[in-house]
Specification:
Blueprint (H helix, E strand, L loop, with lengths): L5 E11 L2 E10 L2 E6 L4 E14 L1 E6 L12 H10 L2 E6 L10 H14 L3 E7 L6 H5 L4 E5 L15 H4 L7 E4 L3 H7 L8 H7 L2 H13 L6 E2 L5 H7 L5 E2 L3 H5 L20 H13 L14 H4 L16 H11 L4 H8 L1 H6 L15 E4 L5 E2 L18 E2 L4 E4 L2 E5 L2 E2 L21
This protein binds (4S)-2,6-dioxohexahydropyrimidine-4-carboxylic acid (DOR) and zinc ion.
Length: 433
C-alpha cells in the first residue's frame, strides 16, 4: 500500500477486501498505485462519506453491433453501462453476422474499440464445426446456445462432448435450455403472456441442459442466467459457475401488466421461484449477477406478446437496483458488491473488480442517499423500455475507467474509444471470495 504522490487521489469510504473503510486511493497512469489513510496527489477528490467502489463487471450484454444497431450499438450500450456503473462488459455473439469466426471477432473488436466508453470483452459463438482454437485466439470467452433464442445460434446436445470436455483458454458460458424440451413445448400460436411463456420454456429445459453438459464431464462451464433453484443443486460440489440476472431475482410472472417488457429467455418464473432465488442470492449461493442486457426496438417490443422478441434492457439498472436495496434493506454489503464486481471478474479470470494496488483504476463514486426513480425515458441505451419503470436505483455520480472520467454528475462525459479489449489473465472459474 505504498504512498508517494499520485496524479489523482480519491478519499472516501473505500470498499476494500469486503468491507468499507475511510481511506484514500492514488491513481497514476490509469492504475491504482497506492491505498492508505492519507495520500498526496496533484488532484485530490475528497468525497467524504460517499462510497468508493470498484467498477462493476457485467459478464452478459447484447450490444447488437454489427447488424442490429437499430436496437443498440457499442456506443449507446457502453454509455448505458457507464451510467449504471458498469466499467467492463462481455458482449454476446448473436449479432449479424454472428461472432462465430475469427474474422467476425476481429471486426467486432475493431468496431468496439472505436466506440466503447467502457472496457469490453467479446464472446465467440460456438456452432457445429467451429474452429475453437482459432476462435479462442480472438475472443474473451465462448458462448454455447443449447436451445434456440434470438439469433438462431444453436449447438445441439450431440455436439456438447466435443466442446465442453476440451481444455479451453477462455471461459465458456452456456444458454442452458434443452432444445428437445423446448421443441416439445413450443406451440404455433406462441405464448400469450408471462405465465404461458414460462410454461412454454419450462425449468425442466434448464435442468435437462445442465444434466447433459455435466454428463460430458466438462472442464469448466458457466451457466448463464440461471432461472431455477434446482439447477444450483446440480452444480453443487462442482467448480462450475453460474450467473443470475436482476430480472430473475426481482420479477415474477404475477407481474402480468409488464407484458413484453418482462419477456425474456429463459423466462422469468413464478413468485415462489423468484422469492427462492432472492433468498439464495442473499445467502451467497448465487455469487454472480449479470444483466443479460438484451434490448430490442420499442416497436418490436410493442408487438403482440406471442411474436414480440425476448430480451430485457438491463445494463444501466443492474447495479443501481441492487445497490439501492443494499443501502435501504440493510443487506450484506460484501455479498451484494462482490456479486457485481470481484466474483464475476474472478470467474472469467479478468483482472478487474477490486480496489487494490496494481489494478486498473475502474472506480465508482456513489452518494449513498442519492437513490432516484428509474424512468425508461431517462435511460441511455436505444431502448427506453424497462420492466423496472418507477423502481428506485442508486446510481454512481462519478465513474472512472482506467483513471479516465466517463460519468460526472451522473451524466455520461466519456469519449467513445475510451474502452479497451479485455481477456482473461488469471485462472478461470473461481467461485468468489
Ligand atoms: O431473452 C433473451 N434475449 N434471451 C436470449 O437468449 C437472447 C436475448 C437476445 O439476444 O435478445
Ligand atoms: Zn443473453
Amino acid at each position: 500500500m505504498g504512498a508517494g504522490r499520485a496524479e489523482i487521489v480519491i478519499a472516501g469510504r473505500l470498499f476494500l477486501d469486503g468491507a468499507f473503510s475511510q481511506a484514500s486511493l492514488g491513481i497514476t497512469d490509469g492504475k491504482i498505485v497506492s491505498i492508505a489513510k492519507v495520500l498526496q496527489g496533484d488532484r485530490v477528490l475528497d468525497v467524504g462519506d460517499a462510497w468508493v467502489l470498484p467498477g462493476l463487471v457485467d459478464l452478459h450484454v447484447h450490444f447488437r453491433e454489427p447488424g442490429l444497431t437499430h436496437k443498440e450499438d457499442f456506443r449507446s450500450g457502453t454509455t448505458a453501462a457507464a451510467v449504471g456503473g458498469v466499467t467492463t462488459v462481455l458482449e454476446m455473439p448473436n449479432t449479424l453476422p454472428p461472432t462465430t469466426t475469427p474474422e467476425a471477432a476481429i471486426a467486432k473488436r475493431e468496431r468496439a474499440a472505436r466506440s466503447a466508453l467502457v472496457d469490453f470483452g467479446i464472446y465467440g459463438g460456438v456452432v457445429p464445426g467451429s474452429d475453437l482454437a482459432a476462435l479462442c485466439a480472438q475472443v474473451s470467452a465462448l458462448k454455447v446456445y443449447a436451445g434456440r433464442s434470438t439469433g438462431g445460434l444453436l449447438l445441439r446436445t450431440e455436439g456438447f462432448a466435443g466442446v465442453f470436455s476440451q481444455p479451453l483458454p477462455v471461459p465458456i458460458a452456456v444458454h442452458a435450455e434443452d432444445e428437445g424440451i423446448l421443441e416439445e413445448h413450443l406451440t404455433d400460436d406462441g405464448p400469450s403472456d408471462l405465465v404461458s411463456h414460462d410454461h412454454s420454456r419450462p425449468a425442466e429445459a434448464e435442468l435437462a441442459a445442465v444434466r447433459h453438459i455435466l454428463a460430458t464431464r466438462p472442464r469448466q462451464v458457466h451457466i448463464a442466467h440461471l432461472s431455477e433453484p434446482r439447477t444450483l443443486e446440480l452444480l453443487a460440489s462442482t467448480s462450475h459457475t453460474c450467473e443470475v440476472t436482476p430480472s430473475h431475482l426481482l420479477l415474477h410472472t404475477g407481474m402480468e401488466s409488464l407484458g413484453t417488457a418482462a419477456k425474456m429467455n429463459p423466462p422469468i418464473r413464478s413468485k415462489a421461484v423468484r422469492d427462492r432465488l432472492w433468498e439464495l442470492y442473499l445467502q451467497g449461493a448465487l455469487p454472480i449477477v449479470a444483466s443479460d442486457h438484451a434490448p430490442h426496438a420499442v416497436q418490436e417490443k410493442g408487438m403482440p406478446f406471442a411474436t414480440a422478441p425476448s430480451g430485457i434492457n438491463g445494463v444501466e439498472t443492474m447495479g443501481p437496483l441492487l445497490l439501492h436495496r443494499l443501502r435501504h434493506d440493510g443487506l450484506d454489503a460484501a455479498r451484494i458488491i462482490d456479486s457485481l464486481t470481484s466474483n464475476p471478474a474472478k470467474a472469467f479470470g479478468l483482472a478487474k473488480g477490486r480496489l487494490q494496488v496494481g489494478a486498473d483504476a475502474d472506480i465508482l463514486i456513489i452518494e449513498p442517499s442519492a437513490s432516484r426513480t428509474i424512468k425508461g425515458s431517462g435511460l441511455h441505451g436505444k431502448c427506453p423500455q424497462t420492466p423496472f419503470e418507477g423502481a428506485q436505483g442508486l446510481f454512481p455520480s462519478v465513474v472512472l475507467v482506467r483513471g479516465t472520467t466517463v460519468v460526472e454528475g451522473g451524466e455520461p462525459v466519456g469519449a467513445p474509444g475510451t474502452g479497451r479489449f479485455v481477456r482473461p489473465s488469471g485462472p478461470l472459474g473461481a467461485r468468489g471470495r
